[in-house]
Amino acid sequence: MNKSKLLTFVCVVSLNVVFAQKKSENDSDPPRLKGPYLGQKPPGTTPEPFAPGIVSTAHKDLSGFFSPDMTEFYFTRYNDSIKKFSLIGFQNIDNQWIESFVAPRVGRPIFAPDGNSMHLGSKYMERTMDGWSEVKSLGPMFDREDWGIMRLSSSASGTYVFDDFKNNDVIRISTIENGKREEPRLLGKEINSGKYTAHPFIAPDESYLIWDSERDDGYGDSDLYISFRQEDGSWGAAINLGDKINTGAWEASAFVTSDGKYLFFNRSVGQESADIFWVDAQIIETLRPKHTSYTIAYGSIDSGSVEIYSGDTEGKPTIKSINAPGGYLAWSPDGKQLAFYHKYDDKKTWSIHTMNIDGTNRKRLTHARNKWDSAPAWSPDGKKIAFGRTYKNSEEVWQNEIWMMNSDGSEQTRIKSLNGGGPFFTPNGRIVFYSDYINGKSEICIANEDGTNLIKLTDNEVHDWHPDVSPDGTQITYMSKIDGNFEIYIMNIDGSDQRRLTNNDVDNWYPSWSPDGSKIIFSSVKDSEKQKKDIYVMNKDGSGVKKIISQSGYAVFKR
Questions:
Q1: What is the pLDDT of residues 344-354, one digit of tens each?
Q2: With contact defined as beta carbons under 8 Å apart, do 176 and 380 qualify?
Q3: Whole-angstrom Cα distance, residue 551 to residue 350?
């Protein structure tokens, strides 16, 4: 985001009246705040009011949320003196939070995961070069007189989840299938039970859904509930977030920051007042069911083919072999396809392919001769594939580039500002990759999809390779040669807290996260030939290392 100028925040009072209302000169200036999260001290496992006296005040303060890049914060306030709701925003400019915008509220605002759209119930706004667009309708599929959408939340792949106060307070879902928006449908009784359901929040990776409801098993008034996505795509049973989050008062309108660290929500604090509270989001992980069964794909050295393994990681596998040689496998977001590379021209040309998981519909997508295309990665919505390209230029100097194409192979374009390989998408659509080899080292970096906002996350005098982002987007696992041989490491998405997980005297390769983020799978080289690999799995803290498949490598979890 360009911090050189303030964005102009616009909303509408009616469908065609646009306004941009700044604070009047008579209003008092907001306090100067510096540091992350409006300069507030982070909470622990007990919820605390957010920014007391600034955000949480004597007014009714509701629906707090940060932008995905954490540089903006918005919330709504009901001012008793003027009897109106307003949408208030703070923007971080040069590490200082400025209260920039005040405007009447439309819907229950919340950002889309890409940060380029703000949902306003059945309407939305888009960022422009000069600020925000006019308020737009989502169209007749959603903007209906017989529906009352208060809050619409979207995932990174474009799934919409929204409430409806005009029809018994229910929650509906609309997914994208084969590039087409599906008609909304009611969620099951796991979600739509109790006196009402409202204000849903769906995780960017769709791994969980949080909403508020008044139920018989609650603590009195509206409580916050969570449902986790099952491996078969269904939603699990509703789980009350517990007595630390829920009380006899009204709790509602959950939001989880894009870094996955904090849960924001509303709580009534008096008969006519409500505040915005925040708490460590670890509560979500404590409630997440622990999976014992996973599906992975890998390349078999014995058969030379792609194989899919389903099992409980305790040595009880079901293996399906596909007669299609390939490596550097990547699952599509819907789990129906694999992307991989294969070698041609006596191994001088490497090309990216896709196929269905039963081996059918195999397509060669890249055809550049004498260039090595490898390490494909699907975008969160499944519409694009990023990959690395390596080759020698006319001066015999190795080039390492990152390219992007549509998932059918069309519109192949180099991301010119990114040099390196091993791209991987975060849930909100950014790209993590390893940089070009310069002075004998490469670093893990993160950037926007178009190559802007490039940030170096590691700074070692060795090779850091093949990053993989956790399903919740908060951590990265990667391989590093900092200790002499390649070992598996982990760090936060911002590059902090870098830790070594494996401790072997052989190279460890190509880590991949499990769907629930609790485990990491990797390959370990058995000897100097670097062709004889075994596949291991371990907990994300490096404990419980266990070999699960012999003579195989480049394993990736389906998630």
A1: 888 899 999 99
A2: no
A3: 23
Looking from the CA of 58 toward its CB, the CA atoms found within 13 Å total: 2
465 in Cβ contact with 434 (< 8 Å): yes
Q: pLDDT value at position 347?
A: 86
Measured CA to CA, the distance from residue 141 to residue 152 in angstroms comes to 13
CA-to-CA dists, residue 105 to 64, 81, 247, 312, angstroms: 13, 16, 28, 49
How confident is the model over 73-110, as pLDDT tens digits? Answer: 998 887 767 677 888 889 888 888 988 765 666 778 99
Convert the pLDDT of each residue in 461-506 to its tens digit: 888 999 999 998 999 999 999 888 899 999 999 999 999 999 887 8
Q: What does the block give as tokens for 230?
A: 């099952």
441 secondary structure, DSSP code: B
Burial 320-346, CB ≥16 within 10 A → b, else e:
eebebebbbbbbbbeeebbbbbbeeee
Residue 31's nearest CA partner among 7, 60, 52, 8 is 52
Integer Cα distance of 285 and 288 in angstroms:
5
DSSP string, 71-125: SEEEEEEEETTTTEEEEEEEEEETTEEEEEEEEE--SS-EE-TTSSEEEETTEEE
Calpha distance 179→181 (Å, rounded): 7
Angle at 286 between CA 512 and CA 163, to 5 degrees: 95
Spatial CA neighbour of 145 closest among 168, 162, 167: 167
DSSP 220-232: SS-EEEEEEBPTT
**Dihedral (Cα; 358, 403, 498, 229), 10-degree rounding:** -40
